[in-house]
Amino acid sequence: MITLCMDTSHIYLSLALIRDDEIIGEVQEECWKHQSEEIFPKLEEMLSKLSLKSDDIDQIVITKGPGSYTGVRISMTIAKVFCSMTNKPLYTLPTMLLYAGMDDRYKRYMAPYASFYRCMTWSFEKGCRWSNMGGIEGSLKGGLTKFKANYNPTINEFVGEFDLPVYKSLYALSQWAMKQRKKALQKK
Asked: φ and ψ at 4, to 5 degrees?
């Protein structure tokens, strides 16, 4: 069984063809506000590389949001037209479920590991000397730090936080409100 998966809900156009449980073709390209222009050429290119035709697709899985209203409608419209014309099944899943990889059936694939590996590999192929894995907990003992330790990272520490107060009085008020909220939550 061949499944076409599509996500156009955010900045990326994401397409995948899956035969049974194996990804046989994929496209992930940043094309914010251009998914509608790029989706058909990319899909045709992917099918052509695999010597497949649209008739070979047995079912479609798409994301249903949240996300860009127009973006969600792109893959939704394509999938609905295709499935209604060919009498093939159409399935949807929440975008956040796809992005988080939290579907219990797929947790064993450890999507974040594959994602970090692919991003780093791509970066190095493009000539980058290093790749940023984002932040870690301040204590260096949390789960995120342990996960990223698998990649033998170099930890760069910078002074400060991510907050740069523009309106100091408003910032002070928000800090006070956060402390009050924490106190209220602790009492519950």
From this structure: -95, 125
Question: Is 33 exposed, middle or buried (CB count within 10 Å of its CB: 0-12, 13-18, 19+)?
Answer: exposed
Three-class SS state of 88: coil
- Residue 25 φ then ψ, to 5°: -160, 145
Record the tokens describing residue 25, joined without a space: 């073709």
Q: What is the pLDDT of residues 111-146, one digit of tens each?
A: 556 667 777 788 888 888 877 766 666 666 666 677
Residue 53 in tokens:
């035709």
- Dist. CA 79–CA 134, nearest whole Å: 35
For the question of whether the overall pTM of this predicted structure is more than 0.90, the answer is no
Name the H helices within 62-110: 69-86, 95-100
